[in-house]
């Protein structure tokens, strides 16, 4: 076994006001020997606990990228930049966005506005680039089935050994031209049919980068019921239970 040094990172994204999932993810991470925890944004939206999620991330001083939902709430924009495809989705989304803006207190709103747009971390001679959607746009969806040419174009001219992102809520690690495109999935609103919270463990060594997608059990029923006693649409409670969009 090699004695070469390694750096281990825990990376999660898209908590979406789900404090039950966030607490479970952080508890799982805390049991592991990781060197750095990074959040890729969308702390708020859809769930019942926006302030609690923001305060937990802030209090733990976790480096965090600003997601499109954080951007909309933090800068008090008229909508979340979610690019809904159907009118009914847009109506539900706007209801969630308006509710979330009313709930988030001023201190937490300013914190959301202060989050990083992007971050590059160099470890073990490797450059890891962290964004929410893509390097080009905060709300671009980099799905796993994108053509290789599209992923190359998203990366642009900047050199990186890995691009880590969220936004689609669907985890994968795809290698294009030696670059890892790692979507961490969603900690608080999975869409892949598995209701467990998701995050990525990324191990970086001089010889390369590896990833592991971790799924964490949490009290989905409690998170869903908390939504049901608010003015948020029932759809968001069902989405947690069924891990759908």
The first-level CATH class is given as: Alpha Beta
What's the mean pLDDT score?
96
Q: Kindly state the number of beta strands.
A: 9
Given helix and strand content, the structural type is alpha/beta
What is the multimeric organization of the chains shown? single chain
Query: CATH fold name, please?
Result: Purple Acid Phosphatase, chain A, domain 2
- Strand order in the sheet with the most strands: 3-4-5-7-6
Kindly state the percentage of residues in helix: 25-40%
How far apart the termini lie comes to 43 Å
- The CATH superfamily turns out to be Metallo-dependent phosphatases
Low-confidence stretches: none
The proportion of strand residues reads 15-25%
CATH architecture: 4-Layer Sandwich
Features:
alpha/beta; 8 helices; 5-stranded mixed sheet; 4-stranded mixed sheet
């Amino acid at each position: 076994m090699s004695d070469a040094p390694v750096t281990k990172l825990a990376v999660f994204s898209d908590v979406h006001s789900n404090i039950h999932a966030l607490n479970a993810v952080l508890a799982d991470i805390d049991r592991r020997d990781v060197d750095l925890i990074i959040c890729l944004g969308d702390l708020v939206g859809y769930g019942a606990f926006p302030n609690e999620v923001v305060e937990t991330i802030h209090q733990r001083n976790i480096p965090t990228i600003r997601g499109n939902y954080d951007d909309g709430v933090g800068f008090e924009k008229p909508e979340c930049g979610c690019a809904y495809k159907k009118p009914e989705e847009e109506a539900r989304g706007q209801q969630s966005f308006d509710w979330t803006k009313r709930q988030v207190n001023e201190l937490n709103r300013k914190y959301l506005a202060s989050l990083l747009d992007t971050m590059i971390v160099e470890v073990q001679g490797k450059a890891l680039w962290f964004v929410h959607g893509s390097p080009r746009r905060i709300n671009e969806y980099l799905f796993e089935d994108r053509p290789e040419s599209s992923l190359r174009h998203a990366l642009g001219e900047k050199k990186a050994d890995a691009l880590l992102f969220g936004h689609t809520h669907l985890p994968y690690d795809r290698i294009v031209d030696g670059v890892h495109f790692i979507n961490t999935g969603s900690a608080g609103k999975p869409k892949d049919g598995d209701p467990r919270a998701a995050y990525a463990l990324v191990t970086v060594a001089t010889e390369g980068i590896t990833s592991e997608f971790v799924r964490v059990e949490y009290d989905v029923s409690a998170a869903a019921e908390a939504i049901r006693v608010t003015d948020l649409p029932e759809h968001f409670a069902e989405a947690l239970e069924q891990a759908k969009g």
